[in-house]
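S.,

As promised, the iron/sulfur cluster run. Input:
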Amino acid sequence: MRGALVFELNACRNNCVFCGSQRKVSDIPVLEMKRIERLALKHALELKNGGYDELEISGGDPVEYPRIAEFVRLLRGRLGFRSVQLSTHGCDLADPVLVDRLRSAGLTQYRIPFYGVTPKVHDAVTQRHGSFMETLRGIKNIRAQAPSSKIQITSLLMRQNCRQVLRILRLAAEYADEIVFSIPCIPDIKGPMKFALSFDELGSLARELLREAARIKRRVHILDVPFCAVGIFSPGLANKGGPPQLAPSYSVPDIFKTKTHGLPSYRVKRKVFQCGRCRVSGLCDGFYDSYLKIFDVAHFRPL
Ligand SMILES: C[S@@+](CC[C@H](N)C(=O)[O-])C[C@H]1O[C@@H](n2cnc3c(N)ncnc32)[C@H](O)[C@@H]1O
Ligand code: SF4
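Predicted complex:
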């Protein structure tokens, strides 16, 4: 069973338009760093004792944490996790020493996003010049230094990259063991209109991606776009399941809290009136509530 750990750095050198990371790792005092690692360890122990033997780590950018290799070693060694995945922008991974330290610590998988296939598009999303080339170099270096580490490449379908999604799929296919597209949630931090696409636009991008994936014979997973928005049922589409399995004592920030443990308000999904007559309703959680406040879906037909 797979559990999820949020490394509560809340810090990253990128500044993605949809993300709330607000500070730099270098600004975090040493004592706070120690507290963050102790908390992460506590959450990891809770998950292990709860029967989770695989762990995915996200939050800020965990690879920017200076002791990340030691932490991974602890998780794989003393705590006995069967696998550990790091979600990262990948910008630090052109460093062969770091990749080798993570490999020898027992890291099993990376999860890295491409938001475009050119610096212009990717860097417009991360709001940091140079980030695309760093990510690409990082991915190439993992392939060279740690070929046994798996790479999941992700992307988010957004206004900034909607003209490049097929090229993102083809670039990801060159390096990835698994390719996952999803859509940005709208946490209302920096203004949704900077990035969010309507479900009409998302549906048509999802159809194009599924066609291209079939053409290049690669499996693609597209998350969070309901079947009726795409107009077809496809095993490549997935929109079912609650929040990731977080430690019992982990708590989402107060402003986003909901009644469901680990589910922030901007990830709440809701069924619409069409769902009552849809044959695949049982396989679908509906639409992000935050999108429904902005975009009309009344014209979608149930499957
Ligand atoms: C929070 S980041 C942490 C790891 C790393 N810094 C990164 O960007 O991959 C983990 C993943 O969550 C995704 N993400 C961040 N904010 C999001 C949002 N508002 N909606 C959907 N996905 C989001 C990003 O695409 C990213 O790949
Ligand atoms: S790279 Fe990750 S943590 Fe950093 S700003 Fe982007 S989504 Fe947030």
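The two ends are 32 Å apart (CA to CA). The pocket of iron/sulfur cluster (ligand 2) is lined by residues 12, 14-16, 19, 21, 60-61, 89, 126 (CB under 6 Å).

- D.
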